[in-house]
Amino acid sequence: MGKKNSVNLLKGNLYKTIILLGYPTALASIVQTLYNLADTFWLGKLGRQAISAPVISFNIIFFILSIAIGFSITGTSLVSQYTGANKPEKANKVAGNLLVYLVFLSIIFSVLGYVFSDEILKFLKTPADALTSTLDYFKIMVLGLPLAFPFFVFQSVLNGYGDTKTPLKIELISALINVIIDPILIFGFMGIPAMGVKGAAITTVISRGVSSLIGIHLLFKGNMGIKLDPEKLKPSMKLLPLMIRVGIPASVGMSGASLGFLVLIGIVNRFGTPVISAYGISTRIIHLFMMPAIAIASSVTAIVGQNLGAGQLDRAKSVIKKGIYLMFLIITPFVIITMIFGGEFTAFFIPKDPTVHQIGKVMFKIVSPAVIFYGITQVLNGAFQGSGYTVPVMITNLSRIWLFRIPMVYLFSCVILNGPKDLTASTGIWWGMFFSNFLAMIMIFIWFRSDKWQNARIKTSQKKQQNNFSQKNT
User: Which residues, in sequence order, are CB contacts of 468 under 8 Å at separation 6+?
Assistant: First the structure.
């Protein structure tokens, strides 16, 4: 592993570069989604109440994780720019500081999440028949947060360096652990007691912990292109303002959007466990075939960052157009398949429940095409993230959920249609998801046309420092 796994982002065919950099990211995300689906599959054997636990908890946990994921974009953005500018020591310092900040945050969120777990689930109007199992699942997951955050740092800084294969290998190890112990802890085996939803949560925590420990070990070992040592962990007051300017908007955008999804799941919860179950299955299935779009966007972020750092603007522009074309080409067949066979997907996870099957069939027909809009939005977001200008990404992410999705979902399902008393009114939820993706795509496209993404943050920061120096000496 290490430098031999990195891709040269500054030259060569861009289609090939996007694919070489993106396919490990896509596979890693697919692996992550598959072992989330494994939880869904095994817990589905225990009934809709059990499967509701990870569905409801996921939105809360993802809100917390999104803060880490959003801020870790700092790693991809700045490491890629410093790598393109041939400044490895600064790239290493970004990685070390990022690790310290995110571990500290993870401990805070873990304590707060555990202490207020009851209040959070009640605020989300968790159905009474799913409250106990969801609380058991959530408490374990939130206590495991400090074991999950470090891997986000590892993944983001290596992506910025141009190595996406090593994180994939670690994800595969984690997935293998999950596949082996998940059914054992859920159902019990050879003296190990059946833990139900608690077993699924413990499995996830263990798997994520292994990923983080391996990642940290490799960064300190130093043959990854990025090398950490105790000096790199000391917070840098010169680097901190730049990390804040890049990381805070990205983190606020992702966490704010995730908070919106908590409000959204509160609306979904009102329709009861049939709609919750169908919604949970759809988010996992659709997330699975959104992976190519996310992977391409991640590639665009790293390629744009390195090329802006190296002063190659034309190549940075070209990769965005090619990324959108590739995304559309890859995603469209999956969209068609899920539109046609959505009911069958739902039946696979929750057999012998025709109510859930019918809801899932309608849901997939409406929501699946919206993934194309989401994919275009993600690729354009990648351009801004690569340059380090993350404010447009923040505003687009927040608008998609708060300005568009929540009001539309509530309007369509609870006002125009009959609300929770009629399960068919859940159709309004799916149309709200569709239109919110479309409007977010239009918003970021208009912003992209302004060309504000074309300047690297590290060069802007250097100019500001030079101007401040000049003013002090005049």
Answer: none
Which one, of 312, 356, 404, lies nearest residue 44 by Cα? 356
CA 343 to chain centre: 26
Distance CA 322, CA 369 (A): 21
**DSSP letter at 192?**
B
- Tokens representing residue 287 in the block: 């997330």
Residue 313 near residue 47 (C-beta atoms within 8 A): no
In a domain, 422, yes or no: yes
- Whether residue 379 lies inside any domain: the answer is yes
What are φ and ψ of residue 353, in 5° steps? Answer: -135, 80
Q: Which of 447, 279, 308, 307 is nearest to 377 (CA)?
A: 447
Specify if 464 maps to a domain.
no
Per-residue burial over 445-464, b if 16 or more Cβ lie within 10 Å, else e, is eebbeeeebeebbbbebeee
Output the tens digit of pLDDT for each of the chain's 474 residues.
445 567 788 888 999 999 988 888 878 777 776 766 676 677 766 666 666 777 777 777 877 888 888 888 888 888 888 888 888 888 899 899 999 999 998 999 899 988 888 888 877 777 777 777 788 888 888 899 899 889 989 988 898 888 888 988 998 888 888 888 878 887 877 778 777 778 888 888 898 899 999 999 999 987 778 889 888 999 888 888 888 888 888 888 888 887 888 788 888 888 887 888 788 777 777 777 778 888 898 899 989 988 988 888 899 999 999 999 999 998 898 889 888 887 777 777 777 777 877 888 888 889 889 989 999 999 999 999 888 888 899 999 999 999 999 999 999 988 888 777 777 788 888 899 999 999 999 999 999 988 778 877 776 555 554 444 344 444
Secondary structure class of 116 (helix, strand, coil): coil
Give which of 298, 303, 325 is closest to 314, Cα–Cα: 303
The tally of domains found in the chain comes to 1
Residue ranges making up the domain that contains 231: 7-456
Asked if residue 1 belongs to a domain, the reply is: no
pTM for this predicted structure = 0.76
Q: What is Dmax (Cα atoms) for the chain?
A: 79
8 Å CB contact between 328 and 372: yes
Q: How far apart are CA 159 and CA 298, in angstroms?
A: 8
Place of tokens 């046309």: 449
What's the gap between Cα 412 and its chain centre? 27
